[in-house]
């Protein structure tokens, strides 16, 4: 047996002719090639080398300093084909590894990129001087010399490389200071950096002197800790912006080699770590007292681009983050104005990231990359047209469920409007003068932001402590406002201490009371010379940090003035201040032109492809529908004023199941018609066909004479609640109703909104989010939705489901009143007692067919027994005993009488003649009795679907 197997295999396989051998070999070679291509490592387009370079800098220019460098060289760069270069600097607390990814992108794009670890960080030597002109800036100049000596780097002249400089935060300030000090820099892209380092760490939103500013202790402490450890902690600049330019050059990377060679340099106080003595002394002074000195401010001033902006001639792209409590938008604004005053080309871009927001949403990262490459390609590489100098900004548009991140929209404005906006809007806030307390030692303090996660407060909410803040609130906004820039508010303060440190905030408060402090941004103010009483206080204009935010219609503004804040140093002495806010709050408004994102082309291509597919499917469906039935647009004149006519309705499914075999009934104006039947009788199927949710197999439905078809315009005259309500849980009841009506395409004025709400009886609950609704509240909201526009025909499936008895009684009156105005109502319900009390007519369905229809009293019919309410039951019984064929029975204080054919009028007359008072005569037969007689106690329907 085993010896026969190969022969069988040979017979089973096809005969290998020369043509098949060639084809098989070619296929095998193709598969092998594709497999090799898939697994072969992709050529990155560049190489890089690491080198410890010793440069000479310092005040005298001969101080040796060792810098850890990494040099990226694009493929093909040579003496014959030199390439432009780029210096890429990292953020505070980082090192050259922090910007590795950005360096790779730029090297692949054709730039020779030199990155390095700044002095005092990682494996580089020296001390931290905060981008001092004599130290870090001179170090960068020596690196320019090194690039100028590289044969593969393009030169404008001997010793002058064709070079740009970029970096984020600490690296961004270096790019500005280097361009001011060295004219060889051809273009710069500084991001999320500072203009005035003293003003950044000692801000005063009322415009006071830097030396009197409010110390930003949380950020300063974070920086000091990171610098003292030589960057080993991973980086205080928090993930700065993100882009191919190195805008994401925050200090996220931990140095591979640890701290400086040999640890803390000799002669340096160990408490200062690798900070230079004067920098350390400045921090210690401010951190200890909470107040600056002129000497400390002078140290910060020498590291501030503000003093040298008039010397920057290199075209500048300034990228600044919206989510940045360290270096807010005002820093970029000051840099832009100072550089533009020289006639230097400047472009400003605000994006939804920063020291608190990281690299920002993907949409913004791609946009910053594109802007950076466009800027460098023109001004450094000499390729492409000159980029526009318009203003670009982003605004958060929502949440992308696919990427699980924020999505932003970008806008452009031809002329940069600064922080005051293109126009302004005034919102009035109200509230009396209020006392606020500064706690002893400044603790506990309000929480508005945390270093590196300031945006967290936008999600979790800032914590304003009771007794330490005053609030002033506006009315709901009548329309949405697109705020872009620095809001301004006028405050007055009084204090027996004569001085106060205040923190002013602007909250966006939604209709549910949820308050958002944009990116945790706060305006600190130090006020001196204050009077003891608020009536004597002078107004002070406070400029709040710039924001970009859409404040929606119906939201409120809340101005909060607090006496403490965890991020800042507050006076240690306890005090009680009195604060007031002038009513008018000025909001800057931006109305930019939407900008196409870098990935928009692919999205449009995908959208076009999907639209083509959808169009093709629609055409197929329309053709199929046209073949199966012809749309009847005629109007039956005899039914033109009849709300509903159902004629010969039958619904049979593909598997042969018959849900409705034959249904005929009419609903006329002024009628409330109850559709009754046991479970599975066909009620829901009838309603689904009526609302166009499914197609009948046979028969037709006419609404005001029009034959019902899916999407028929006559459906606008019908309101319905079928198969339960469905609402968006994050919207309020009112917002859900507005969204529903907007989808109809009809004017809001036609919605008769207030009337529908009054009918539904929701009251103030309509302003709550529907996720907080009970089942009954959702049902009432659904009824209100069905009644929007007060349609001429109202179709309701179990409208009292989830309502309590008082609400059911109210709904009964509502439906009766609704029909009396010439409208009509069709109600499907299993509550027979309610149908009997509510409906004028009834249609009883059983097993897919109608077994009875007509006025309710006709279906109920004459009752063989009656219930008599009399004033003397015993006397009445004695009278009735004397009547032939009448059998009386006393029951619960009343009298039940079996008439046995005797007319009710004769019974009543006999009682009245005998002096017995008759208050009421009620038939004992009910709709339930008639219903059971028609369908039987054990009736089962056909299995309604």
UniProtKB/TrEMBL annotation:
From what superkingdom does this record's organism come? Bacteria
GO MF term set? ATP binding
Q: Which residues form the ABC transporter domain?
A: 644-872
Q: Which UniProt keywords apply?
A: ATP-binding, Hydrolase, Membrane, Nucleotide-binding, Transmembrane, Transmembrane helix, Transport
Q: Which residues form the signal peptide?
A: none
PROSITE patterns, per this entry?
ABC_TRANSPORTER_1, ABC_TRANSPORTER_2
Where would you find the membrane-spanning parts of this chain?
21-40, 601-624
The protein's matches in InterPro entries, at most eight in alphabetical order, are given as: AAA+_ATPase, AB_hydrolase_fold, ABC_transporter-like_ATP-bd, ABC_transporter-like_CS, Galactose-bd-like_sf, P-loop_NTPase, Xaa-Pro-like_dom, Xaa-Pro_dipept_C
Q: Which family does it belong to?
A: Belongs to the ABC transporter superfamily.
Q: Which PANTHER family match?
A: ABC TRANSPORTER, ATP-BINDING PROTEIN
What's the protein name? Answer: ABC-2 type transport system ATP-binding protein
Q: Which organism is it from?
A: Catenuloplanes nepalensis
